[in-house]
Amino acid sequence: MNRLSKWLPLVFLILAVVYPFTISDSYTLTLLAMSFIWTIAVYGMNLIAGYTGQLSLAQAGFFGIGAYTYGVLTLKLGVNTIVALLAAIVLTGCIGFLVGLISLRTKGHYFTIFTLCVGVILSLILEKWESVTEGVRGLIGIPGLSVGSFTFDSYVSQYYLILFCLVLSVFVSKRILHSLFGRTLQSVRNSEDLAEALGVNVMRTKILSFALSTMYAGLAGGLYSIMIRFIGPDISVIDHTFDMLLYLIVGGIGTFWGPLVGTLLVTILTQWMQFLAEYRMVIFGPLLVILVMFLPHGIMGSIAKRQMQRNLRKMEQATIAAGDSKRVGRQLDA
């Protein structure tokens, strides 16, 4: 598993880079790019729900803020596209910080319900604030990202742009989780009381984690605007939050590769069952139930758990073998 976990991401990256050279199917390319966008948002959800232990259901609302920030700044105000994308990330993070200041005063189910309400309120604001968001008409003709004279306006260029942002997001997540702050997040998840007794500022840690998770959603929303060029208030509805949660549960909540595996697998599976039309959920539902029954920790979580059990058995066998050799040695000395 250790070798697999080391080489599989590199194999995935190579396949993702060479894929557009082998297949010129724009539909599949768009599908993959969209799954990469959702993966970025799910990495943010994993940070607050999986590693900090605070299930937030407002992620789709922050996704919408990121999308609308990019759309309004570029389409209505003519702001540089790179500046607009950075502004989408920063503004979403600032709003997430303010929401976290209030919502994280609650705990457990109360926090989850509070964030669910926040997500609904954000979606309503995006729909009703017509002077800025154009209401249900949405924003049409959002410009693509430009770097100098080059514009990411083709399917292939957008695919590589989103792939680059995904790799960057995964890299940042890895750096966060392997830092002191990342270990602090996990200590808060395991026991807030114990973490506080050890000197951890629990509230500050949770607020920072919440704000970081919303920044991921803001980046994903901005990339969505760049790719689709049209956004409406439906992108921030609560259904998308539950989609993200589904991807995370399937891949493995609180595991590093769970967001990537879960999002790609569910996206490909649902597209593969498109020929069943509305009946696909009849098959997909039982499949999900079976997955939760037999892999309650998700795909990557179950693999990690089995690897841990195998390592423990090896350690026990090594300890028993060492004890036997010492006993034989003492008998020989006697």
UniProtKB/TrEMBL annotation:
One of its GO terms (cellular component) is plasma membrane. It is a multi-pass membrane protein. One of its GO terms (molecular function) is branched-chain amino acid transmembrane transporter activity. The keyword Transmembrane helix applies. Keywords: Cell membrane, Membrane, Transmembrane, Transmembrane helix. Its main location: membrane. The keyword Membrane applies. It is found in: Cell membrane. The chain crosses the membrane at residues 7-23, 29-48, 55-73, 79-102, 109-126, 159-177, 207-232, 244-269, 281-304. Pfam families: BPD_transp_2. InterPro entries: ABC_transp_permease (IPR001851), LivM-like (IPR043428). This is Branched-chain amino acid ABC transporter permease. It comes from Effusibacillus dendaii.
